[in-house]
């Protein structure tokens, strides 16, 4: 058992909180990266395929802010302008309409839920 005097209490508390903050930041980064990879795989699997170029075009971009926060963006590098049209549908040139195929929104909802579940699981004490 460690005995801490009144003078050292604030230092001990600060040290423990800094350790937990560092752990939480690392766990959050890892969880965000895993969820982004899973989301990309789900979108790729559910993407409409004609030639396969659109489905193969899904990428992940990582952005790190100056304070160390990490953001992952899943985007389509091969045909970025098609994502909206294929997800929501579009009008045909000679009339009529092409129905959309929801492949991004369901993966996004699952990614949000997986991120929350993963963070709760990893950060619970």
Uncertain runs: none
The ordered string of helix (H) and strand (E) elements is: HHEEHEEH
User: The biggest beta sheet, please?
Assistant: 2 strands, antiparallel
The number of distinct structural domains comes to: 1
Percent range of helical residues = 40-55%
Through-space gap between termini: 21 Å
Backbone structural class: alpha+beta
Mean pLDDT: 92
Rounded radius of gyration (Å) = 22 Å
Oligomer: single chain
Secondary structure tally, helices: 4
Q: What overall geometry do the principal axes of the alpha carbons give?
A: rod-shaped
The number of strands is: 4
What does this molecule look like?
This protein has 125 residues and is α+β, with helices and mostly antiparallel strands. It has one domain (9-120). It has 4 helices and 4 strands. The protein has helices at residues 9-46, 53-56, 82-88, 105-123, and strands spanning 58-64, 70-76, 90-91, 97-98. The strands form 2 sheets. Strands 1-2 form a two-stranded antiparallel sheet. A two-stranded antiparallel sheet has the order 3-4. The radius of gyration is 22 Å and the shape is rod-shaped. The model has no long low-confidence stretch (mean pLDDT 92).
